[in-house]
Amino acid sequence: MNARSKASSRRTGSPRLFVIDTNVLMHDPTSLFRFEEHDVFLPMVTLEELDDHKKGMSEVARNARQASRFLEEIIARAAGTDFAAGLPLSTAAGPQARGHLLLQTEAVDTTLPASIPASGKADNQILAVVGWLKARHPERQVILVTKDINMRIKARALGLDAEDYFNDKVLEDTDLLYTGVRELPADFWEQHAGDMESWQEAGSTYYRVHGPLCRNLSVNEFVWQDTGRSFAAVVREQDGGAAVMQTVRDYAHQKNSVWGILARNREQNFALNLLMDPDIDLVTLVGQAGTGKTLLTLAAGLAQTLDDKLYSEIIMTRVTVPVGEDIGFLPGTEEEKMTPWMGALEDNLDVLNRSDDEAGDWGRAATRDLVRSRIKVKSLNFMRGRTFLNKFLIIDEAQNLTPKQMKTLITRAGPGTKVVCLGNLAQIDTPYLTEGSSGLTYVVDRMKGWPHGGHVTLARGERSRLADAAGDRL
């Protein structure tokens, strides 16, 4: 529920009545408990559609079964309660819910316009129920909640209130998403240099500063300034009005190259600082196509797996959502089935392999075989219950994952494992997922400020001038 909904509730003075469409329950089974003091109404058609979708191993089928279990729990806890009066929603699963659940217990007799047959499509039957409730409870605001845009349009055309389901959105505006990078104002040192301390440790310079901006900084946030002498650092500690900053390593310099790759811009340098830091367990990289997310991650993974021996192998996975029509079943083992989805992996390995100019054709062929032997491609379908020890886990196209799927993947990490999530929030292919409700947005927002996690939004494309122009103009 959004701020506009709460304001409207205050105006009416009485709890509102939300009619829940099936797609909301199949998107988020806990939506039953997300309406605070307001009541929730489930039409009989919604229950029938839940029953139709409960079979299978897909995320939708699992959510349908979970929604049914929640409904059974609510009914069991309210044994002996009159269904017509409503069943209390407050349960162990949803203690914040203070409203009631009402189920359709009688036939609905209402007339929709002749152009909309009430007895045909399930959506139209739900619209009929909303119209019937509005006429029966004129003192209450009755609102349809659905993820279906066309259904919201039809509802408004019939004079009925309809809203999207907002509670799954981490942010209303993804422009406000944490970037992990902050430019310091020109007068930063004048305002924060009082009582400043600085010291050297392990080849890095540390600064302890005090001032008003320190309260807005997050741990592992990168700060930079180009006025006067160039300055780039990462926030290591933040405590009220004080912060400790550590200067970053310059991965744009040839002596610090990572598997032959150099940072081409400021954000790529910050990303490599996170990827190469063994104390950082979770890295999220967000950026448009061509910003170097996969290339930087693979280079860092190979350097720490083959050269530094920090990790035993690299595991790469991604959600298999096609952009166009599905091409059908794929033959072979799990890794062979995933091969068509891993074109980005092969493309970037070609770039990394060519970076060794002195190896020659035989040397590059041997290196490629060694590299491929240390990279495993896994499907998301077989991740549940697994634990990865000392692995470098790359989750590609993470913007297509739901928050629940993202949690399932990240909690696979065992001791010594580093998880890197890559994605472009402008390329979401999963139905009903938006930039605000994507699992990638969820992780970036919730893990912000954790001492062992970091995030960078890559801004500049480095693929080619054609890719940059197409990203800007098309």
The number of distinct structural domains comes to 3
- End-to-end C-alpha gap: 34 Å
Structural class by secondary-structure content: alpha/beta
Shape label: globular
CATH fold-level name of the largest domain: Rossmann fold
Helical content class? 25-40%
Give the low-pLDDT segments.
1-12, 322-327
Shape-level CATH architecture of the largest domain: 3-Layer(aba) Sandwich
Strand content: 15-25%
For the biggest sheet, the summary is: 6 strands, mixed
What would the average pLDDT be, to the nearest integer? Answer: 84
Reading off the top of the CATH hierarchy, the class of the largest domain is best stated as: Alpha Beta
Any idea what the CATH superfamily of the largest domain is called? P-loop containing nucleotide triphosphate hydrolases
Computed Rg: 26 Å
Order of strands across the main sheet: 3-4-2-1-5-6
Describe the 3D structure.
The protein is α/β, with parallel strands linked by helices. It folds into 3 domains: 3-163, 5'-nuclease (Rossmann fold, 3-Layer(aba) Sandwich), CATH 3.40.50.1010; 174-247, Elongation Factor Tu (Ef-tu), domain 3, CATH 2.40.30; 259-473, 3-Layer(aba) Sandwich (Rossmann fold), CATH 3.40.50.300. The chain has 15 helices and 18 strands. Strand 1, helix 2 (22-27) and strand 2 (39-42) form a beta-alpha-beta unit. The chain is globular, with a radius of gyration of 26 Å.
